Fold each of these.
Amino acid sequence: MTIESLSTIGYDDGDIDTNVSANPHIGELIASRYSRRQTLRGGISAMTAAVFGAGMLAGCDQDDERRATTVTAGGAITTSVGKTVTLNGAVTSGNSASTAWTQTSGPIVSLANATGAAASFTAPAVTAATPLAFQFTSTSTDGIRSVADTIVTVAPATLDFTAVPKSLADVVAVPSGYQVTVLYRLGDPINGSVGAYANDGSDTNFSARAGDHHDGMSFFGLAATGTTPDPTNSSRGLLVLNHENITQSYLHPNGPTTVAGARPTAEVLKEIEAHGVSVVEINRGTSGWSYVNSSSLNRRITPFTPMDFSGPVKGNALLFTGYSPTGVAARGTINNCANGTMPWNTYLTNEENWAGYFRREAGDNARRTAALGARSVVAFSRYGLNTGSNDALKAGNYNWATAAAPAAGDTRIAKFNATVDATKAANGTGDFRNEPNQYGWVVEIDPFDPASTPRKRTALGRMNHEGCVIGRTIAGVRPAFYMGDDAQNEYVYKFVSSATWSAADASATNRLAIGDKYLDTGTLYVGKFNADGSGQWLPLVFGQGALTGANSAYAFTDQADVLTHARLAGDALGATKMDRPEWTAVNPVTGEMYLTLTNNSSRTVATTDAANPRAYSDPKTTGGASNGNPNGHVIRLRETGDSSEALAFTWDIYAFGAGSDLNPANINLSNLDATNDFSSPDGLWFARPSNVAGQGTPLLWIETDDGAYTDVTNCMLLAAIPGTVGDGGTRTFTNSLGGQTASQTTRIGKAPGTALKRFLVGPKECEITGIDSTPDGRSIFVNIQHPGEGGGPSGITSNWPQSQASGTGSGRPRSATIVIIKTDGGIIGL
């Protein structure tokens, strides 16, 4: 039947409103039990439960007395990367049985106290303003759920501290809100059988004490108990650090002595043992950080520690010595500067200015030529081992080789005399003519196994190794390792392993065997920087190009010869001479490599190029001037295709060191001001990707080793949030020095501005060097090297670290590791 027909016959189905009573509608019931806001938040199920109870079939003739709570999630919050955010929920009415915070959108964060009213989290790494949504839920004692929402907007990372002013005080100065603790000092004992350090020159046994001149450094997380690695632990770990050199005068009661032209043996042994590497356990307890002087993992590696050679040069005649006639063993490491932290939990220490320690008697060039040929003299001279003019004496640092042997047959001191003994075998197995060839390598150490023997990795070449930093590791891709050769007009190198990366290797227990896999076979390259911003990696492979026996400057014999004399190989290939290539660092997000070019006093207007573009004079307030490129710069490169295997790259200069008072048109090209001007960049490190400081736009830390600006300020540590290669443009300016003037064009990054700030200034006459952090980024370790280096027992020029608390003191200065924390427990720098 149609509707029309029903209407015609007057049909009525009763669907009309005949209830005129005062009883409430369901909406009115809901309104009386549940606020409008809660209705919107809780949905239909909450409304039904509020009116009918948890089960609608529970007896329609009963009055349900259950009640909901009323909640609020607080107002919207705006913050930035790395900040601690507290969400403040509240139950404003009713009885709550439980509460909980949950995240409903945005980059996932880890909520602390998620079941409490006040939950917190660390703002995640973002590169643009990003909203995160959170919901606060309360379940009433009657089982009714009420919710409220809030939004947290996270802005990109900023350097959220006030820049530390330049200073000549005898303290480590850090921004307000930060705290400095001295952790591990020269002479500190590393086992229970060695007494406290007297610091008056009488102390001995540096094989069981902290060495001098703390330098490159890495933190390795330890499991809560035992001796196994835990890369996530930020409260217990191993600190591994280099002891590059010594401040000789402070190691003896009245400075070093010489008797009848010879150094005392005891003094020399002390000085040698104060070099090398420390491995020490450190813990963070309720009262802060301290080192454990009785740990079974504590270890000192010195110039006397037995080592093995590995890689292509192992067993080669170039390594034959009286100690190792087969060239497979080594004895010690020295002048260890920067470092490298391997993802398989080993430490790389790097031998830098090792050549200066060796003695060569007058006439040794002639003896060497007769025994080994003229090419041997060429090689020694290229590495700074040449004798003086007219083949005169090269005495060697500290005149160690003049000391008598500690005992008959003990050659620990004798090895520092590289003079050819014409009465011994021509292959060097009877003396130490080849001992210098045993130095200048990258050395790998397993810090978790005190019984392990360090390995010198010859595939990475021989030079004044500053550091060795691995690039990003990507499964199935061959990793790259970046290195600088720290001397004027030397080169930058890259080693690409022949093994592709496997993430499983990061947790292997045979750590040095993993090092064998990645560090013993591969290709070593040297860098060439072109004026147009491009660059090439040139392979150092025997038989390719000029690396043959036909090379007129130096006739190469095999691959071992090429690697042992990497400088000569770089010469032959036309690599770019750089302004002292020092530390390398790789941005963990972009993979771009940064390199400090500390300074170059020999740079002239005529020898500038696009990658090393400045030659100028920097006047000192105390009189005189520094010339060449006295303030240095930081260069960076991006591999083609962002691949560690690439043979080409693009580059620009991230920042030029300069005083803020220098000419911005021709010298202060990065427009530095009083908050960020610096000189002689040296140490370089990106924050760890295990925390937000190393994610998104990672923090870059720059340390200085200054000679040009120390009339104005002590050395410093700066924090930066750098951009990317190519974010600036091309710049042409005028160099003027020594009566010469010429224009130069270079590629310069955008001005750092507020994205570069001075974070720390050190005590008198120090170098700031060595840096790492805990995985959570909430503790950062920094080394203070050679405070008061210009003084001695009768004229102490710094009392640090004794002066740290008050700025004054009376004792001899000591190199030391400090640890810096934020007083609010936050992430350093953000």
Amino acid sequence: MDRTQGQAEPVEQTAAASVAPAVASAAAGPAAAPAPGPVARIVTLTAGDFTLTVNPVDGSEIEPRRPGTGGTAPAKRDAADRAARDAAARPPALPGPAAPAPPLLAREEERERLVRLLGRGRSVRLTGPAGSGRSALLDAVGADCTGLAPDGVVRLSGYGHQQAGELLHALYAAVYEASAERPERTQLLARVRDIGAIVLLDDLEMGGTALDELLRATPECAYLLAATPDTRAPSDDSHLEEVFLGGLGRADCVELLEAGTGRPLTEEENAWAGDLRFASEGLPLRFVQAAALLRQRDERNQSSAEDDDDEPGVFEERPRDAAFVALPTLAEGAAPAELLASRVSESARAALRIACALGGEMPHHAHLPALVGDTHADAAVAELLGCGLLTPVGTRYRLAAGVVRQLEEAGFADTAAEEARTAARHYAWWTGHASVTPERVASEADAVLAALAGADVVAAVLLARTAAPAFAASRHWEAWERVLRSGAEAARKAGEVAEQAYFHHELGVHALCEGRLDRARAELEASIGLRGALADKRGTVAGRRALALVTDREKAGVEVSPPLRLEPPASASEAVTTVVPAVSKSAPTTPMAAVAPVAPVPAVAPVVPVIGRAQAPTTLSEVFEEAFPLDPKPAVAAPVVPAPLRAAEPRRKPVLLAAAGALTVVVLGTVVSLAMTGSDPETPAGGVGPASSSTPTAGTSGGAGVPGTGGNDPAPDPGTTAPDASEPASPEPGLSPDPNQSQRTPSRKPSSTPPSRTPSSTGPTGTSSNPEPTQSVPTTPPVSTPTPTPTPTSTTPANPSATA
């Protein structure tokens, strides 16, 4: 138990100081002095491509790793480091004199076979029921295999692991000297592939594809896997050797009983041992417990010679029973937990109640004085281990198989809720203490998680808040994730919004380190929303930084993803030249054949300046300057097309007609809009030509005036030149005058000549009888009856005065 009352270092920040006195007093008892508040341990780790700063106060911060740091495999441990690591992987030494270990009987054949197979590099699955002595056999085989592999013997515990990822990280930490690095999956697989060791994996709980993944990831390792028969079997492709452990024979069971009691058995005890062997199928654990029952019976029957002269009850906690204690019944021998628990010390019984409340997990013996309230309660673990009620699991102890059920039936779980709440408050104080390293917290991970599951919501939030940073710093990330999820649920039930935001932020950071981007985005967005509601600026900034990394990773994943493998055409020009001629041969006069070419499309380019103008034109000269510029634009010039397209005359007509129609629509729309917004109140809406006449077409004959007018308008000045018939921007040559010519004074003389209406004329019809000023305005080209060729249908003289 850590009771160091040291002062905090200046670089450390105080966190949860107000909770520490209450938790410490609840854990150590009412007479204990309040301890100073736990301080925050800020630890920096390298997690793949990220640098993770574990900050218990505001939440972990994650940022990209700086170039040139990390990325290289660390050095492997030498023999001395491996020995120290192997000693740390064993259960802790218990206070008091060391109890003799039970002998390993009738396992010589299996032991030799396992050593022989492992020496050849074969992996073996050792299957046996709970209590068959698998752990003892693994220890013996590990001692025989020392020096066979270049990386030595590695001991791991598979209890609670259903996937291979966490076991691979544990193997990596056992072989490499990487105390502040947790590699990503790609780096992890590349480094564990070079490990050549004999791995002793006890309490295996996974099989099938998960076990195949573990074996494929470490091809240079030889595994000795200890599992129970109900564990999922490996796949057919795993190529594992199977070794089954059975029960002991009658002679071996009697020998084990005599070694446990320290004396030879009587005839009655021999017969009782034979019946017990038949009922328990010869499991060694049952005879370890039976030997404890015989020792307790000897003590109660005053069988020791040195105690004959002592007065009963003087040096004992309770008076001796004068009645003779008979042998246990066969039922009590097969399920001895209740009888054994009734004869142990009070501190041991209190420890059993705590273990029942924690689901069978026994806390470290250093925690028992604070949890039980007895300064000598740390000796209870050795007492219970000698009775066979505890069994080693990795670096800790837990109740043996079947003991939890038997104690629950005996009433030891009646106070489970109170015991779990006490354990949760104690671990909340202990995990947040400055003197407790993250590695020690990781060794108590199962007990902490069990206390978290059985505590109330307030104690669960407090424990998860202090234990989560310690698990993150110790690189025990499976326990880190489980604590965060339990804490988030408890905070939601308790209504602690700030704590709930913290847990969601940590879950998002954890998912980002593991490469689960969808989960990371969901958790970080939930955290940002909660912290935004609380106006937590620092937490919101940290969450947005992590979310930005998620976005960057998502973009990088999209960029590196392979595209769809579709086969596009070789080039656009090849597609046109191969498709268009085939269409033109089959239907030379249909307008649909003109849709395939792409080159003639820029002929509609003159529309762009009119639409893209910042302000609408205010005069007719600006309108025609936009529609018919003096300088021909490159887009209007004849485009460069392949030879087959230039020779195809029917294909060019629809294109010119489409361009003429587009220009007509633009000019009419602009003129109408100008007429509606004009300043002259006497000007009609039409804006051009007489009010009672329509605009004739170029081919209309009759009328001595200027073509395109009513016939009474004067001719243009002699100095005005007619527009060139070859103007490329004019859809009808000879009908469009120069847009920059000077405007004539409008004449208000009404037209006396009725308009000439021809079937081909589609000009606007005047509806007003008011006179209008006449100007030299270009006439729009026909729309409804297009000419078969781009040449004009009528000939206009170069000098308009000649027709007058």
